[in-house]
Amino acid sequence: MMKVYLACDHGGVEYKNAVKSYLKQEGVIVEDLGVDQYESVDYPDYAEKVCSRVLDKEDAKGILICGTGIGMSIAANKIRGIRAALVSDCFSAKATREHNDTNVLCLGQRVIGEGLALMIVDVWLNTEFAGERHQTRIDKINRLEKNK
Ligand code: RB5
Asked: Which atom of ligand 1 is found nearest the CA of 12?
């Protein structure tokens, strides 16, 4: 069964909690890796916590939330094996699973409404990777990572 690791910085606490409640209500196994306070923290620390667990566990995905989602997505994409997408619309949520096989979703709490954020989470988690020509492109991304 799929497991979702969830974290945020101080700019994403409300949406992190909203996503957590939503996923629990949907019967998804979710682990909250913080934060719960509004004191300033550094988003790369939380990106690392989620991404290392996503890579360690088969059939796991991660959701990272900060003010814009940008810092989290930059940090997450530095980690080998992570394909993180910053998403603000449902079309991209679907496409990035089908085409990019993203294993981490980033959201910006200061950018989109909560209803849209939850809909994006739902679409992203319920869309399968389409494989075929898209796998060829993922293989090329993996080669880029190896050549770094
Ligand atoms: C924190 O103020 C803010 O910089 C952070 O949440 C995020 O938006 C960074 O990309």
From this structure: 6
Judged against a pLDDT cut of 70, whether residue 3 lies above it is answered with yes
CATH code, 94: 3.40.1400.10
84 - beta bridge partners? Answer: 104
Mutate to test the pocket of ligand 1, among 8, 9, 14, 65 (most ligand atoms within 8 A of CB): 9
Considering the entire predicted model, what is its pTM? 0.97
Compute, in angstroms, the gap from residue 68 CA to the centroid of ligand 1.
6
99 is catalytic: yes
Residues 13-22 pLDDT 10s: 999 999 999 9
Q: Which domain holds residue 65?
A: 3-146
Total domains present in the chain: 1
Question: DSSP secondary structure string, 90-116?
Answer: HHHHHHHHHTT--SEEEEETTTS-HHH
Instruction: Tell me whether strands 60-66 and 3-8 are parallel, antiparallel or unpaired.
Output: parallel
